[in-house]
UniProtKB/TrEMBL annotation:
Tree of life domain: Bacteria
Bilayer-crossing regions: none
Keywords, ordered alphabetically: DNA-binding
Protein's recorded name: Rrf2 family transcriptional regulator
InterPro entries: TR_Rrf2-type_CS, Tscrpt_reg_Rrf2, WH-like_DNA-bd_sf, WH_DNA-bd_sf
Keyword DNA-binding: yes
Gene3D superfamilies (UniProt xref): Winged helix-like DNA-binding domain superfamily/Winged helix DNA-binding domain
């Protein structure tokens, strides 16, 4: 599985927010990771819709985690953001090639995907978040 840039930015944004005691803003996330503010805003919008992030408008507003980092599964974030996590297109369909009816590779790849997602779902945001001093040094 190769993750999209959007998933990368979503995970980085969540890790950043997990190190903050106060609300942050999209510009601070974008600046730290040298990412476009528009890309971060798009990711934050998705994360807010999915309930991972709380976005508060106005004076004193900003973005913050809506769920404690210990309760956010990396695998769940990946599953939320990614459209397709299949190693090959045949794993997600029944009729993608001439040998689909007797192909054994499809089952092997499906099991590999299952094991990978099972592992990612066992890892929490808290497990992968760097310390605030580590981020502040950047």
């Amino acid at each position: 599985m190769k993750l999209t840039t959007q998933t990368d930015y979503a995970l980085r944004t969540l890790m950043y927010l997990a190190t903050r005691d106060t609300r942050a803003n999209v510009a601070s996330v974008a600046s730290l990771f040298n990412i476009s503010v528009n890309h971060v805003a798009k990711v934050v919008n998705l994360l807010a819709r999915e309930g991972y992030v709380r976005s508060i408008r106005g004076v004193g507003g900003g973005i913050e985690l809506a769920i404690p980092p210990e309760e956010i599964s990396v695998g769940q974030v990946v599953a939320t953001v990614e459209q397709d996590t299949n190693l090959l297109s045949c794993v997600g369909t029944d009729d993608s090639c001439a040998i689909h009816s007797f192909c054994k590779l499809k089952g092997v790849l499906a099991e590999a995907e299952r094991v990978q997602m099972e592992y990612l779902k066992s890892v929490t945001l808290a497990d992968v978040t760097p310390s605030r001093p580590q981020l502040d040094k950047l």
